[in-house]
Design brief:
Layout (H helix, E strand, L loop, with lengths): L2 E8 L3 H8 L2 H7 L6 E5 L10 E8 L2 E13 L3 E8 L4 E11 L2 E11 L3 H39 L9
Antiparallel strand pairs: 1-7, 2-3, 3-4, 4-5, 5-6, 6-7
Helix pairs in contact: 1-3
Length: about 160
């Protein structure tokens, strides 16, 4: 069972990052490379505890659908989404937001099981785990940029103006 852990330091409060991470609209923008779009359940705004969203996307040239449900939430510290239906045998995706001196440490933990037994395990080793790590990292970097840009615009401070 592969486990992918990604940590990013983001110069923004946990509340801002938490809401960006559960925003259906931000998710769709951050996954534009796979043409991901919500087609069922919560299709815009902020997903809440107990709600589902069904995504349609193109991965490996194949149009796929995946439904995930928010199974745990403690705003603004963490939430968990789990696959209800989709290409994986199962997955659990934990999102944690830890306030630190310089902002927030965002910790993603994606644990999944591929379908098709031994063939799925081979796919993990050959390409799927690396593909998923890259996919999640791109999404997290998008959230980081959006959060830090939000804070820059909110404070009205342009770092380039104040460089030493």
């Amino acid at each position: 069972m592969p486990s992918i852990r990604i940590e990013l330091l983001i110069n923004a409060p946990a509340e801002v990052i938490f809401d960006l991470a559960r925003s259906i609209d931000i998710h769709a923008k951050s996954t534009a490379q796979t043409k991901e779009r919500p087609i069922g359940g919560r299709t815009s705004g902020l997903i809440e505890l107990g709600e589902t969203v069904t995504w349609e996307a193109v991965h490996f040239g194949i149009k796929q659908k995946l439904t995930a449900k928010i199974t745990e939430m403690d705003r603004p510290y963490y939430f968990v989404d789990e696959q209800v239906r989709g290409a994986f045998k199962n997955f659990k995706h934990s999102h944690e937001f830890v306030p630190v001196e310089d902002g927030t440490r965002m910790i993603d933990l994606f644990v999944y099981t591929s379908p098709m037994g031994v063939l799925g395990k081979l796919a993990d080793k050959w390409f799927l785990e690396a593909y998923m790590r890259n996919f999640l990292m791109q999404r997290n970097l998008y959230i980081k940029f959006a959060a830090e840009e939000t804070m820059r615009l909110h404070t009205g401070i342009d770092d380039a103006v104040y460089e030493k």
